[in-house]
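PROTOCOL LOG
Step 1. Enter all chains and additional molecules of the complex.
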Amino acid sequence: MTTAETGQQRRIMIELDALSKEFPGQEKPAVDGLSLEVPEGEIVILVGPSGCGKTTTMKMINRIIEPTSGRIILDGEDVTKANPDHLRRRIGYVIQQIGLFPHMTIAENIATVPKLLGWDKARISARIDELLETVNMPSSQYRDRYPKELSGGQRQRIGVARAMSGDPDVMLMDEPFGAVDPITRDRLQNEFLRLQSEFRKTIVFVTHDIDEAIKMGDRIAILQEGSRIAQYDTPEQILTAPANDFVADFIGSGASLKRLNLSRVADLELTQWATARVGTDREEALETLRRSDHGALLVLDQNGRPRRWVSAADLSRSDGQPLDRIGMEPEAVVEPRATLSDALNELITASYSVVVVVDQEGVYQGIVDIDQINESIRTMRSNAVARAREGLASDRGAGEVGSVSE
Amino acid sequence: MSVTAPTTLRERPPRGPRRTRSGRSLVGYLTMPVFLVLVGVVLYLYVHAQDLDSIEVRSLNASRLTKAVWESVQLTVVSTVLVIAIAVPLGVLLTRPFTRRIRPYILAVFNIGQAIPTIGIFVLLAVAFLFLGFKAAIVGLVLYTVVPVLLNTMVGLEQVDDSILEAGRGMGISKFGVLRTIELPLSIPIILAGVRTALIINVGTATLATYINAGGTGDIIVAGLSTNRTLVQIVGAVLTAMLALFIDYLAGVAEDLLRPKGL
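Step 2. Run joint prediction.
Step 3. Record the structure below.
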């Protein structure tokens, strides 16, 4: 197990000490003497093939599954024998099926843990409003609805809000975005990362999807059968220097493409594009387009949100129609928190070669084109190669004496 | 994400004020009571138009009929309340993991109870134990209808999605808390369906209670049979049917009202 450099600076929030789980009637233990340290404020991903024991491992942290042997230390306190109900109220828990209580309103669902913790009504109510705001679902509109009235993505958000309701330091998430469609999933992931950058919870996150692991994790534990750790490291290190064949196989091919999950649109310098406001008249718009070297104009509304792509041909055919009625709708729109992988996906599915970047309010920030993404891939790859060669160089240095005599 | 979140739900039409929670309209709720009142009026007018002889007058007068109906209601309500008090806690116990081993045996015993017709139990109680009257009738009715409520309680509790229970336990709700705030509310519709079945069986079977001197609308029917008066038989039968329909209607209303919102 490799410990990343940052590990020493941070306090350890969860420590698993030689944790094992044997299920009756099974020959091999599901979890075999796992030791793992989770630093405070980080997302640690447990990833591995199905049946490797990752979910069992996670469920032992809040003792939904009781360990056969070993210790669980939470924030310096041995909780292996603590009252499980009290322990669980300190740990947020999100599962793939979400498990919202269908007979309770959204507000009642979120209030579950605060009620158990004995908060007063005013505090609980304020907390519900705050959390619904946090997950972008206006409280006035949603708090009295029932789960069946929400879409899958909205339910998942409520699941996360409910898990955060008691303000736990630690959260456990079992394939939390596994049951939603890919587009919603990307959005939920990005939103969750935004929340995490604000709240800095300590999170243990289980997934079988290496791409999700690379995108979401500060640190990834790749697990083999029996929950044995094949490698525990940062996503960058795992992609660059897989510890063994198992890890290399599990990452699969296309490490450079996967590395796109590591950089975000915000890391790039955005290019500016020729834009025009909705009210602009045709001549002025044509003039702007002529002065730029672009094939089309991006039309923004009063608030600066992208509305249309308008080409010179659209303009000449416009017949005096306002700018927001001609051209086509911008499809590939991403937030700065989106990964380059997201951006590339959008780019490939869109009918033109740039991605529009907007901030949280949807206001235009700039664009990213395929060349910029390509350049990022190239830089990352050469960095990775350089790092790999560093080791090579020092090896060679040691072996130099021998090679001279050749 | 913030852009897309609110849109999907805004389009939902608000629920109309005339609709009840179950979606049944006000007219739907009134149909059965109006029908029963009509049948009652027709029956009254029909009997009134006949020339009654002294035997018929002895059976078909207000105090005799009210007493019979009231006895039937008592038999039905008391037996059903007892059935709920026995079957629901038992159903809860039999769905807990620690009773898994003994579950089949207990169910077998109760199934035997249901296999014996209630009239058989009445006769058995009367002949073997000289046990007659209201209490004996209640014992017979309860033995017969525990099973549907018990089975529905078990099915109701077992159909609650495991992920919901896991979420509840995972948030630190105690085992009893999960039972009380999640499992039972979510199984109410199915438990109530069992209770409704029990009510219907009981209101029908209560007519047999007359044979062990426990009264009820069966008294009127039997009186009509033994004195060979068709009119008395008809009145007894129609009253029994009306009572059954009315109790079933009330049970339906109760189901609508007690069903948790959001399901």
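Step 4. Note key features.
Chain B has one domain: 24-258.
Chain B has a mean pLDDT of 87.
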